[in-house]
DNA sequence: TCCTTAGTTCAAAAGTTATTGAACAATTGG
DNA sequence: CCAATTGTTCAATAACTTTTGAACTAAGGA
C-alpha cells in the first residue's frame, strides 16, 4: 500500500508555488521543516483544520512533490522531500521557510505540546 | 495618477507564492527579471494572453507587491520590485527565477524581438 | 471478534480565480 | 479637434479550490 508521488524531475515549479501559497499548507511545511527528520502523522496538524480538510491539503502537498507519505499501519507518516526539492529547485525551500519564519501573521501548528505537570 | 502598491513590510509570503504559482504571472516575472532595469509596458506581454487578461494578471502582481507600475503617459511602465522583495524575503526571488530558468514546460514571452533587417 | 484509531472518499456547497468581450477613460500626435 | 494608442473596468461565465459531514476502509489492540 504505497501512495502515488511524483518523481523528482516531475515536480513542477508553478504547482509547488501554488501549493505553498495556501496558508494552511505553508503552516504544515513550516512545521515539518521545524521537525526535520521526524516523521509525523496527520493528527499532528489538527490545529490547522478538520481531519477531512487536512487529508485534502496533505494530498495536495504530496501530489505536488513537497511531502512524502509513508503508510505505517493505520498511520501515514509525513516527511518533507527536502533532498528532492533542493535538487530540483536549489534554495527555494530554504528561502520560503526563512521568509515564513518571522511572520507572525501566518498560522502555525502548536499549542498542544505535552505539558510537564508541576 | 499613481496606482496603489503595498509597502515592503506589507508584502505577504502566501500571497506572493500564490501569485507566482500562476504560469502566466510566472512568465511575466521571468521576463521582467531577464530585462532588469528596463521598464516595460503591458503590450510586451501580449504573447501571454489578451489585453484584458494581462491587465488582470499585472494588477495581481502589483497588488501582491511583486511589481511596480508607473504611469507614463498612456503607458504603465512595469518593473520588478527586486530590492523590496530581496529585503522582505531574501533569496526567494532568485531561487524562483533560477528554478524557472531551466524549465521548458513554462510559457515564455518572446517571438517578437525587433528583427534586424539583412 | 469487536471496538477503536487513523485516515480516505464522496458528493454537495461555498467561495475564489481566470477569461472573455464590450464599453470606457486618458493621453498623445496629426 | 479628431483619431489612434494604451490600458482599465464591468458583468458574465467558466473553471477551479476549499470546506464540510457522512460513510467508508484498514489495521491494531482488548
Describe the fold and architecture.
2 copies of one chain form a homodimer. With 118 residues, chain A is mostly helical. Chain A has a single domain, classed as Winged helix-like DNA-binding domain superfamily/Winged helix DNA-binding domain (Arc Repressor Mutant, subunit A). Chain A is built from 5 helices and 2 strands; from the N terminus they run αααββαα. A two-stranded antiparallel sheet of chain A has the order 1-2. The radius of gyration of chain A is 14 Å and the shape is globular. The relative contact order of chain A is 0.22. Chains A and B meet through α1 and α5 of A and α1 and α5 of B. Chain A binds a DNA duplex (30 and 30 nucleotides) through α3.
Could you give me the name of the CATH homologous superfamily of chain A? Winged helix-like DNA-binding domain superfamily/Winged helix DNA-binding domain
Give the largest interface. Answer: A-B, 27 and 27 residues
Count of domains of chain A: 1
- Tell me, rounded to a whole number, the average pLDDT of chain A: 90
Tally of separate helices of chain A: 5
Task: Tell me what the CATH architecture of chain A is.
Answer: Orthogonal Bundle
State the major sheet of chain A: 2 strands, antiparallel
Q: How much of the residues of chain A is beta strand, in percent?
A: 5-15%
End-to-end gap of chain A: 44 Å
Shape of chain A: globular
List the SSEs and their pairings:
Two copies of one chain form a homodimer.
Chain A: H1 13-20, H2 23-34, H3 51-64, E1 67-72, E2 75-80, H4 82-88, H5 92-101
Antiparallel strand pairs in A: 1-2
The first copy, chain A, binds a DNA duplex (30 and 30 nucleotides) through residues 1, 22, 24, 41-43, 49-60, 73-76.
Amino acid at each position: 500500500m504505497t501512495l502515488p508521488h511524483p518523481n523528482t524531475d516531475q515536480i513542477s515549479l508553478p504547482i509547488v508555488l501554488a501549493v505553498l501559497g495556501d496558508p494552511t499548507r505553508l503552516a504544515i511545511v513550516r512545521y515539518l521543516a521545524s521537525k526535520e527528520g521526524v516523521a509525523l502523522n496527520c493528527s499532528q496538524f489538527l490545529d490547522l483544520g478538520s481531519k477531512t480538510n487536512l487529508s485534502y491539503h496533505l494530498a495536495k502537498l504530496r501530489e505536488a512533490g513537497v511531502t512524502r507519505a509513508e503508510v505505517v499501519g493505520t498511520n501515514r507518516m509525513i516527511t518533507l522531500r527536502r533532498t528532492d526539492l533542493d535538487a530540483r529547485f536549489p534554495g527555494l525551500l530554504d528561502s520560503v521557510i526563512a521568509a515564513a519564519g518571522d511572520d507572525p501573521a501566518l498560522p502555525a501548528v502548536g499549542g498542544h505540546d505535552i505539558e510537564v505537570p508541576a
